[in-house]
Structures are given as C-alpha cells and as structure tokens.
Amino acid sequence: MNEDGKAFGLVGSFIVDSKLFLEGIKLARPETRADLPIPGNRVRNDLTDVLYGEDIEISDTESFSNDPCTGVKKLKGNDVRIILGQFDEQMAAKVFCCAYDEEMYGSKYQWIIPGWYESSWWESWINSSQCLRKNLLTAMEGYIGVDFEPLSSKVIKTISGRTPQQYEKEYNAKRGDGQSSKFHGYAYDGIWVIAKTLQRAMKYLNATNRHQKIEDFNYTNHKLGKIFVDAMNETNFFGVTGQVVFRNGERMGTIKFTQFQERKEVKVGEYNAVADTLEIINNTIRFQGVEPPKDKTIIQEQLRKISLPLYSILSALTILGMIMASAFLFFNIKNRNQKLIKMSSPYMNNLIILGGMLSYASIFLFGLDGSFVSEKTFETLCTVRTWILTVGYTTAFGAMFAKTWRVHAIFKNVKMKKKIIKDQKLLVIVGGMLLIDLCILICWQVVDPLRRTVEKYNMEKHLLEFARSLKQ
C-alpha cells in the first residue's frame, strides 16, 4: 500500500537470459517489502534504479489502483513475458484473474510477485477477484514469490549458543497462543547487534578517549554517532536469521524464493546477499515448458532460399532434358549424311542442340543460392550463369534464325532461280550474334559487374499470423 492507501501495482518485463532471470530478483533488498511503511513510488524507483544499474532493461511499466485488466492487456500487447508484480494479496487475485482472461499464463510467461503474503492467501480473495477458483489457480501456477528469510535453515549454533531451530522452538513455547510476527527473528538479532555495537564502541572509547564515555551520548553528538555507525558496520556474526552483516548501514540478509506448485508454495531457492550467491534447491523449481520462458517473442531473420525439393525436381527434369538433347545430338551426328538430315542443315541443328544444353545447364546454376555456396562463390556464380544462359540462348536462337532466314531468302527469289546458301554463311550469322553478345557481356563485366546484395523483406503473412499466435 502506498501513502494514499491505494494498492500499488508494478509490472515489467526484464530482457535477460531466461535461464538466469532469477538473478534480477536477487538484487532486491529486504527493505523494499510492500508491508513496510515505504511509499510505493520509492519502492518502484529504488528497484528500477537497481535493475538499470545491472543492465536489465524494463520494457514496460503499468500501474493501477483498482482494475488491473487494462494494464495486463497493455503488457500482452507489448509482448511482455517475464513480469514482476508489486501489489497486495487482494490485488494479486485480481491480476491473476485478468491474466487468465488474457491467457497470460503457462509455459510462455513467468510471474514474479512478493512472497510476504499470508499462507493460502488466495482462499481469502477468490470472491473479490470475480474469477472461478480453478481459473485463478491455473493462472497462478508457477509464479515465483520473493521475500526475506525469516529464520535461517542452517543447523548452526548462533551467537547466543542456540541453533535457529532451537530458538524458534523456545520462542513458540514462551509465546504460547499469542499472535506471532514474522520479524521476531530480526528483532532478536537486532538486540544482539545493539549489544555488539555498544560493546565495540565502548572498547574504542576506552582505547582512544578516556575523557568521553558512552553515557555521554546525545542526539547532537555527531562524533559519538559516527563511532556507533562505524561499530555497527563492523558487525559480523551468525544469528537466527543468518549471517548478520551491514553494508553502508543496510542489513545484508537472505532472500528466499518460493514457487506456486500444485496449489501450494514450495521453497525453491535462496539468495545470500553476503556471499552474493544464488542457490536453487535440488532442482525443485519447475517450468511449465521444456525450458524457462523467453522474455519476448524471438523473431530470427532467415535467408530466403530456394526450396530443396523444388530444386531437386527441376534438376531431375533438367537432366532428363539434357539426356534427350544428347540423344538428338548423337542421332544428328550419326545420320548427318542421310539425305533428309543433310537437307535440314545438321550443323545448325547441332548448334541449336548445344545452345539448348547450355540453357539447361544454367538451371543448375540459377538454383544454387546462399544456402549452398559461400558469398564470394555466389558472386562468381552470378556472372557465370548469366554468360552461360546468354551464350546458350543466342546460339540456339541464332542457328534457328539463320535457318529460317535461308528459307526466306530462297523463297523470296521471285524468278525461282537456283540459289545456294551454304552453312558457312549461316555460321557467320550465328558468330556475328555471339560476337555482339560477347561485346555487351564484356563491357557489362568491366563497367558494372554483378554484385551480391541482400534485400530485407517484411514478415510474410503466414509467419506474422504464427508470431501473433505465439503472443497469445
């Protein structure tokens, strides 16, 4: 709750490696609990500064005081996947109800919320959430709660000579049926901190200033105040709440992580601020997918390439065409002295077949793209396939044109005088066409050679629809 008495909500997405997203939460200090009298804006700003300081980007922030559904919808629209929430139990029930309606749960999302709620807190607020019980529990499944560790789980004797477990047993026995506070361990260690601080300050005063005693302290004595602060910062002992160490006047405690699994909260790990270590307990943390959720929809650019099955089919048809052309060439050469074959200009026929075979060969080269060859080879390939297709087409078309021209020249003779146009003349025509092509190709290669370029396309419609389905 903030100072205005309204529930405060903060949600954000952290762009981090999804396997290490807990590292971002371990940075939260115990002082940022929502049940302490710290204004909501201060908590949010403090956490934001810490996250930015650790190079963790916050992609979106939403706040609300009553209806969180609008904010949840905005988060979904911004493709937020890892969400940190800061709100009380009543607001948490409403948020998870909205999350269920927006389908923001499951293997694609990770909710991280305060862990200081009462045990089975959802039972008290199901009615206020206007959500079916099973729907609320479905949306809550897998959330991670973050809270300070009220008592250390280590079985080690503390400064008082008791283990944390012995202290808790004795505390409960003396407390009886009275109401318990989760801060009792910190209060107990706090008394020891005061005692150790006073002891260290007294030793310092006795060793350095015999004229000033600790009894002379008052709130205007800044010198004694600094001695107390320095003495407290030197405090280092094992208490019932763990290792008691101060840094810049702040207690370095232990943060525990719990996860909501099958309608109950299970402790899955803890962060030791003193040693700066994060420990996951025996792989108890469960993700609803095969791996931790990604922080956003990942769209990878892929090289648009020719379909391998399509290339294989066309290559097979091309080979059949080249085999057929080779058979025609063999037949034409073998029977070149036959009257009918000889009358059809076998040399021109051979050129037509060779031109066709060159054009066939270019199909193989045009099908080789960046997925088959390197960038440097691809540039060379672009030039080679252009030359082969051009020469092949000109050879086949030139020979066919020469034969057609000869028939035209013969029948154009109105006097029907015998006119002989030998194949050598036709070869000159074909050679002339090839010479023109070669001149153009050489100039092209010298002045403006082919270069490999990469064009970026917009996401294709079916891929865009697929990406949108992932967001849902």
TrEMBL record:
This is Gamma-aminobutyric acid type B receptor subunit 2. Belongs to the G-protein coupled receptor 3 family. GABA-B receptor subfamily. It is found in: Cell membrane. Keywords: Cell membrane, G-protein coupled receptor, Glycoprotein, Membrane, Receptor, Signal, Transducer, Transmembrane, Transmembrane helix. SUPFAM superfamilies: Periplasmic binding protein-like I (SSF53822). GO terms for molecular function: G protein-coupled GABA receptor activity. CDD domains: PBP1_GABAb_receptor. It is a multi-pass membrane protein. The chain crosses the membrane at residues 308-331, 351-372, 384-405, 426-447. It comes from the Eukaryota. One of its GO terms (biological process) is gamma-aminobutyric acid signaling pathway. InterPro entries: ANF_lig-bd_rcpt, GPCR3_GABA-B, GPCR_3_C, GPCR_3_GABA_rcpt_B2, Peripla_BP_I. Residues 310-449 form the G-protein coupled receptors family 3 profile domain. Pfam families: 7tm_3 (PF00003), ANF_receptor (PF01094). One of its GO terms (cellular component) is G protein-coupled receptor heterodimeric complex.
